[in-house]
Amino acid sequence: MIKKAEKADSAVLAEMALLMWEDDDPNDLKEEFERLTEGDDSACFIQYADDTPVGFAQCQLRRDYVEGTDTSPVGYLEGIFIREEYRRRGYARALLKSCEKWAKERHCSQFASDCELENEDSLRFHMAMGFEEANRIICFRKDI
């Protein structure tokens, strides 16, 4: 079962997100998910196996330029995670479909995502889900 997350689900989302984004602060994540679940331009979905939350997806609308797209807004997969012991059961695909449906309901005709260059698992997932690689970049910064 997939449920569209509400503010009350923020702690569950943050707990799973920490398994993916290990360097983030748990309280910051919880606050961010509270904001995201109440926003009109974002949504989070939780995948359950029986009564156990086993994964989530976070998506939102992006109105700025998105690599490889030519429309606005664009639905954007910000993060997707399935607990390791529940992988390879179609849960990630189902979560992605929920995000895509949500974006279509908001008049998006394109959906995008990204992953780190070294994240081969994410690259394989995206390609298996029908995404096309739009670009590879290296981002720079410096303190001034």
Summarize the structure.
This protein is of the alpha+beta class and 144 residues long. 33% of the residues lie in helices and 24% in strands. It has one domain: Aminopeptidase (3-Layer(aba) Sandwich), CATH 3.40.630.30.
Count of alpha and pi helical runs: 4
Q: What is the CATH fold-level name?
A: Aminopeptidase
Helix-strand category: alpha+beta
Provide the β-strand percentage band.
Answer: 15-25%
Radius of gyration, taken over Cα atoms and rounded to an integer in Å: 15 Å
Largest sheet properties: 5 strands, mixed
Helix content: 25-40%
What is the CATH architecture assignment? Answer: 3-Layer(aba) Sandwich
Number of strands: 5
Q: How far do the termini sit from each other? A: 49 Å
Low-confidence stretches: none
CATH superfamily: Gcn5-related N-acetyltransferase (GNAT)
SSE series: EHHEEEHEH
Strand-helix topology:
Blueprint lengths: L1 E3 L5 H11 L5 H13 L3 E8 L2 E11 L11 E9 L8 H15 L5 E3 L6 H9 L16
Parallel strand pairs: 4-5
Antiparallel strand pairs: 1-2, 2-3, 3-4
Helix pairs in contact: 1-2
What does this structure look like?
Helix content is 33%, strand content 24%. With 144 residues, the protein is an alpha+beta fold. It has a single domain, classed as Gcn5-related N-acetyltransferase (GNAT) (Aminopeptidase, 3-Layer(aba) Sandwich), CATH 3.40.630.30. The longest helix has 15 residues, at 91-105. It starts with a strand and ends in a 16-residue tail after the last helix.
